[in-house]
Amino acid sequence: MIHGSLFPAASDASDVSGDCALRVGLIGTGVVGSGTCQVLARNADLIAQRAGRPIRLVMATARNLLKAAQVLGPDVALVSDPLTLVRHPGIDVVVEVMGGVTLARTLVLDAIAHGKHVVTVNKALLAEHGSEIFAAADAQGVIVAYEGAVAVSIPIIKALREGLAANRILEVVGIVNGTTNFILTQMHDAGLSFEAALRLATELGYAEADPTLDVSGMDAAHKTALLAAIAFGADVPLDLVHVQGIGTLDPFDMVCAQALGYRIKLLGMARQRSNALEVRVHPTLVPEKHLLAQVQGAMNGIWVNADAAGPTFHYGAGAGSQTTASAVVADLMDVARQGSAGLSARVPHRSVPSGVIRSWPILPIGQVASRHYLRFELTKRPELLTRLNGWLQALGVDVQRLAHVQHPQDGMQGAVVMLTQCLTGDVLLGAMEALRQMSGGLEPAAMWRVEDLN
Ligand code: HSE
Question: Which of 19, 209, 342, 399 has the highest local Cβ count within 10 Å?
Fold first, then answer.
């Protein structure tokens, strides 16, 4: 612990906060942590009025305490050991915005064990260890709130849990990763390569120093698993979520998709089928008039289809400091309002009276049906096209739309692109293998799924 005039001692925490204030301990003072401090300070009066009591940041821990002291000012006690913070009697709620999984899990579970509520934006932590963390929180009677983990400024957890509570949710389809949406937008609008668009995303501060989780689709998978859990009342094991990132997407397919009236977006999808769930993340063709196709740059958009409300669309910033803080502080206000009442209802599938969590089977991707986009490089052998149509017909693959597309770069081969009828992944792959054999080696240069979302 650091003592001195610059750093009030940790034991001062309860004194500075007053009796009725909700006393917050902050782990991590980076982009989201500093935004949270700014919002709490700037809107303190309004927040106190709406939450029914003041919310006061009284203690923090960070890797760089001197830098943290500059961000937080003199009224916040700084401690070097996060365990001191999560166990401190002068803290009511721990805000975890440090990221990572292993240490974050230890600290969150320790905070819960010491009776603290937790607000986190850590989607990886909840997607991997949510069952353990929510069970521990239920047992202790504390809240684990995570609005900022899924779509940053969009209050989608609240919308699903409260605003749409009367509905049976049919599907949730979203652009939930700002970095990849920025990259795809640059590839589409400015014709940048994936590498150049990623460099720009890094320069502008959208992509993390290590953008692997974003680019690989894992960040979107974490968020989609959390959305599926809240929408369908199910625990969704991360390893059953089909994930494909944007690294292998050829920008030429964005041009071809446009020729067919579509845009390619990295979608996270959770959909209820008769007795199973589809939960998947991959680049997908979306009709260019659909609202999801209009989500540009680092923005996020989530389309929810529900049985009573019908479709609703939720749009907002997909990354950022105060944009994420908006969700963190709203969660703190929920904690301030609710005290310890009705906690398990916050994660509805965990409020089953018997304590039995519903376990939905997750459909393997090969059994998931959708329309597909296929690209064949046939332009140097146009006579093959007639034969291809015949082969596809014989294999039960209907070509529902077809276009010839010239490659925008000189000297590059153009393509024939097409959309199929709705087929499962297994059926399509089987047909493509049969095509290869019957045609002496013809196969699509690219295959992506299509979602018409109507
Ligand atoms: N890296 C994330 C994104 C940050 O780009 O969406 C917000 O979760």
Answer: 399
